[in-house]
Design goal:
The chain is an alpha+beta fold. It folds into 2 domains: about 140 residues, no CATH class; about 90 residues. Helices cover about 60% and strands about 10% of the residues. The chain has a 4-stranded mixed sheet. Strand 3 and strand 4 form a beta hairpin. Helix 2 packs parallel to helix 4, helix 3 packs antiparallel against helix 4 and helix 5 packs antiparallel against helix 6. It starts with 11 loop residues before the first strand and ends in a 10-residue tail after the last helix.
């Protein structure tokens, strides 16, 4: 579902901790579009937003890549529009290992969030008296790594939580596990779509001001999250149909004829 879009002549290449990193040109455009509202405050805020997303996605994928290395596989990191990938050189076998690899990405983001918060507690570099740009950088680093990490843990495939859900369901229900995990994934995606639409309508004055009463750290839904989880729901529904058909139809052809 989230695939390597292929290499271009405009990719940015560098290495971090020995891992090759490739930034696709669509990363810059997608990230700029996602943070376009910050232009109202000034171009420096948009640049800060792009920098935060770049660092946060890179740290997230480094978490996966380091876990792959721990289990004997090297990895390449790709940053694309709206997502990143840690692409291993070969498959890692073992459900528990794959669960740890999936959780390593959000955990790396939580560690970065903690380091940013702790550094401000110790040094006060983003206290209320700091320049607006500095406070924005601090707040955005906290929110992106905390909220995106929590969203990534939702049991919606192909998010990291969906990967973990698939492995756990496979451990509990064996051959039926993938189908059960897809049902969970589809149901959660639909709930996220409904929540996002409700938040958008509420923000526009249709509701009773529900989103205004949410804690600052709780992510309100948006048009973007509605579209994103709609995409996930559609592909999960398609895969669920294919998996259900495969599980209920016996293929008696010889292996090389399938």
């Amino acid at each position: 579902m989230l695939a390597d879009p292929g290499r271009t002549h405009y990719d940015l290449h560098f290495r971090v901790l020995g891992f090759p990193v490739r930034v696709h040109p669509w990363f810059w455009l997608g990230t700029a579009l996602m943070g376009s509202r910050t232009l109202d405050a000034g171009v420096e805020f948009l640049l800060a937003w792009i920098a935060v997303v770049l660092v946060s996605l890179l740290v997230h994928e480094l978490g996966h890549a380091l876990a792959f290395r721990r289990y004997g596989s090297d990895a390449e990191i790709l940053l694309f529009a709206f997502y990143g990938l840690a692409i291993p050189t070969h498959e890692v076998f073992g459900r528990r290992k794959r669960i740890i690899i999936s959780l390593a990405g959000p955990f790396a983001g939580f560690v970065l969030c903690g380091l940013v918060y702790g550094s401000n507690v110790a040094l006060g570099w983003a206290d209320p008296g700091a320049p607006h740009q500095v406070f924005y950088l601090y707040r955005t680093l906290i929110l992106v790594n905390l909220l995106w990490g929590l969203m990534n843990l939702l049991p919606v495939y192909p998010l990291d939580g969906g990967q973990v859900s698939r492995e756990l369901c496979g451990m509990m229900w064996s051959n039926r596990g993938k189908r059960i995990s897809l049902k969970i994934s589809f149901g959660c995606a639909v709930l996220m779509i409904a929540y996002s639409i409700f938040c958008v309508l509420d923000d526009r004055g249709v509701g009773a001001g529900f989103t205004g009463r949410l804690p600052w750290w709780f992510p309100p839904g948006s048009v973007f999250t509605a579209i994103l989880f709609g995409f996930f729901a559609y592909h999960n529904y398609q895969e669920l149909g294919r998996t259900t058909w495969t599980d209920t139809h016996w293929d008696d052809r010889l292996p090389w004829a399938r």
